[in-house]
Amino acid sequence: MKILIIEDEIDLLHSVQEFLEQESYLVEFATNYETAVVKVLSYQYDCILLDIMLPGGSGLDILRLLKNEKKDQPVLILSAKDSVEDKVLGLEIGADDYLAKPFHLSELLARIKSIVRRHMHQGDHVISYKDVKLNPDLRQVTVGSKEVILNRKEYDMLYYLMLRPNKLMEKTTIAETVWGDNADQADNLDFIYSQIKNLRRKLKEANAQIDIQAVYGVGYKLI
């Protein structure tokens, strides 16, 4: 799961980044308005943590940009500006939630999980497809009653594909989602193949009713 932190307070940024990475999130960041705009328009994130006061512009303008561009990316506002007006305006523009600084990291994590559930799987804690169940909170995958042990990349790929069954996903999109935005600068995307191969093997060994189909030269889809 990929998170974008838009924050210019470097100590806070690093603290949140380290915490979320320990929770197995893939974290990208932007420290100013211009960089943030490039990232939100170029890539897709599971959740954006957005400060209102940024060098070069306002986080509220980023919200307006997302709305105008019809980019459905969940947003949690993080700001020291705790006035009712700022909160209401942010939510009216399109933010999903608002958390005032200072905050506890455990509360931040709970808010992120809640927002992602609402956007990605209609509030359910478990994602199901055929006989496979995936619990994002526990990072646990089961086929029937049997748990399937996956490494981090295998899990992240399965999670991404299970949210989009029968939909062809390009290799570049999978790479950016699982490995980060810099993955599109790689000379090739062969590193995806080995992870897909191992994931398919583990699902087959568990007699799962799903498989990952390769579409040569394009990408993969869950069938």
Describe this structure in words.
With 223 residues, the protein is of the alpha/beta class. The chain folds into 2 domains: 120 residues, 3-Layer(aba) Sandwich (Rossmann fold); 96 residues, Arc Repressor Mutant, subunit A (Orthogonal Bundle), CATH 1.10.10. Helices cover 43% and strands 23% of the residues. The chain has 8 helices and 14 strands. The strands form 4 sheets. It has a 5-stranded parallel sheet, with helices on both faces. Strand 9 and strand 10 form a beta hairpin. Helix 2 packs parallel to helix 3, helix 6 packs across helix 7 and helix 6 crosses helix 8. The longest helix is centred in the middle third of the chain and has 17 residues. It starts with a strand and ends with a strand. The model has no long low-confidence stretch (mean pLDDT 88).
Contiguous low-pLDDT stretches (5 residues minimum) are none
From the 3D coordinates, which CATH architecture of the largest domain would you assign?
Answer: 3-Layer(aba) Sandwich
Report mean pLDDT, rounded to a whole number.
88
Structural class: alpha/beta
Shape: globular
Give the tally of structural domains.
2
State the fourth-level CATH superfamily of the largest domain: Response regulator
> How are helices and strands ordered from N to C?
EHEHEEEHEHEHEEEEHEHHEE
How is the CATH topology of the largest domain named? Rossmann fold
Strand order of the largest sheet: 2-1-3-6-7
Q: What is the top-level CATH class of the largest domain?
A: Alpha Beta
Report the radius of gyration as a whole number of Å: 18 Å
- Please work out how many helical segments DSSP would assign: 8
Beta-strand share of residues = 15-25%
- Biggest sheet: strands, sense, closure? 5 strands, parallel
* Count of individual beta strands: 14
User: Helicity level, as a percent range?
Assistant: 40-55%
Question: Distance between the terminal alpha carbons, to the nearest Å?
Answer: 21 Å
Protein name: Response regulator transcription factor
Modified residues (4-aspartylphosphate): 51
GO molecular function, one term: transcription cis-regulatory region binding
Domain Response regulatory: 2-116
